[in-house]
Specification:
Elements (H helix, E strand, L loop, with lengths): L9 H23 L6 H34 L5 H34 L7 H4 L16 H24 L5 H26 L5 H9 L2 H4 L1 H15 L1 H6 L1 H21 L8 H17 L2 H5 L8 H29 L7 H33 L3 H6 L2
Length: 378
């Protein structure tokens, strides 16, 4: 697999690789210890959830940077935003729809039926305003990302139309703040009208729902705004900001653990404040990671994991893990059996992701640079 290292930032590859590895370790606990609970397993699962948050803020940071550079070049016509969307969709949609179809086929083979509401998945509506069905469960985060990529640029375009003489940078950050405030209001409305019954209820009905979570992407947009418009501060204080993010993240979660703070006994904190604070703490890590350009160890391996991360994310749980669980019951399996299954799970997750990337994802991604696409938007 050929990689052009000149156009990659190693620190962001580390960020992305860390995110997918945290998700994989979390899913490993679900595979090997499906009916077991312990403090260690809960910590691993928790960091798996944080892995998704890492993806959110990184996606927002990268996409926000692309949009900012676009408006700085005065590419603010609707066709310019259309070109942005088309490029993004060539990167994300082919993989998503292929894996969705594979999930539908496997579900039909195993259970001889198709779940109700399957059409919602083709429009990313399966978790738009409420928790989605227990099918292709990892797709919840993809819905959030897709709507964030649509809504943010659309709001910005409208502001650019109505406030033509205003600073484009101010309109960019204004659009982000407006969306974050709106999402916060929707979470507050959820808080007033819902009684949480468990951690799972909170996760399914709020943490994994589009209208309550797209702000996670826009905190990454704020990071992009500061990295471009205040680049000196972004670089000069990268270490200080990194340790501030680490401090915020671990002190908050130490207090949550120490005082046994949970959604069921502290719903206001979890419904309104917890997820934004996690996003902010992770954004504070980006100045250091985005300025980390030199690798002294495992450069190729980390870069490969980063490149395959999207394919791995789509494949590892619904395709590999659930298929293994369908054929093998590991609840009372021996250590030898579990080690063997563990090796198979990790190998298949990366090998199938490699095939998906090389023969499907990369060819479609390359199409966005084709003459046909460029001519349509020039």
């Amino acid at each position: 697999m050929h990689v052009d290292y000149k156009h990659r930032i190693f620190g962001l590859d580390v960020f992305r690789a860390l995110a997918i590895l945290l998700v994989l370790f979390s899913h490993t606990t679900l595979l090997l210890f499906p009916n077991k609970e312990s403090f260690v397993l809960e910590v691993i699962k928790f960091f798996g959830a944080i892995g998704v948050d890492l993806f959110f803020v990184l996606s927002g940071f990268l996409i926000g940077g692309i949009i900012l550079k676009q408006i700085h070049l005065n590419k603010t016509a609707f066709k310019d935003f259309g070109y942005f969307w088309v490029r993004r969709w060539f990167r994300t949609l082919p993989n998503y729809f292929l894996i969705l179809l594979v999930n539908i086929i496997l579900y039909f083979i195993f259970f001889r039926k198709v779940i109700s509401g399957i059409g919602h998945y083709f429009l990313f509506l399966q978790n738009f305003s409420e928790g989605q069905a227990d099918f292709f469960t990892e797709s919840w985060s993809l819905s959030i990302e897709e709507y964030a990529y649509i809504i943010g640029p659309l709001v910005l375009f409208l502001l650019l139309v109505f406030f033509k003489n205003s600073s484009k940078d101010k309109l960019f950050i204004s659009s982000v703040v407006v969306i974050i405030c709106l999402v916060t209001f929707l979470r507050f409305d959820f808080h007033l009208n819902n009684t949480l019954t468990s951690d799972h209820h909170w996760s399914k009905e709020l943490r994994k729902v589009v209208i309550f979570r797209i702000d996670s992407i826009y905190y990454g947009f704020i990071g992009a705004f500061f990295s471009i418009n205040y680049s000196t501060i972004w670089k000069q204080y990268k270490v200080w900001l990194f340790f501030s993010g680490i401090f915020l993240f671990f002190v908050m979660h130490f207090l949550v653990f120490w005082y046994d703070v949970k959604p069921i006994n502290a719903p206001l904190f979890y419904n309104i404040f917890y997820l934004p604070l996690v996003s902010i703490s992770l954004v504070l890590l980006l100045p250091l990671f985005s300025n980390w350009n030199h690798a002294h160890f495992f450069k190729r391996e980390i870069t490969y994991i980063s490149i395959l991360s999207y394919a791995v994310y789509l494949i590892n749980y619904s395709i590999v893990l659930l298929t293994i669980q369908y054929f093998i019951n590991l609840s009372n399996a021996s250590i030898v059996t579990k080690v063997g299954v563990l090796i198979v799970f990790w190998f298949l997750s990366f090998y199938l992701a490699y095939l998906l990337y090389v023969f499907f994802e990369r060819p479609f991604t390359n199409l966005r640079d084709s003459k046909f696409i460029k001519d349509k938007f020039n």
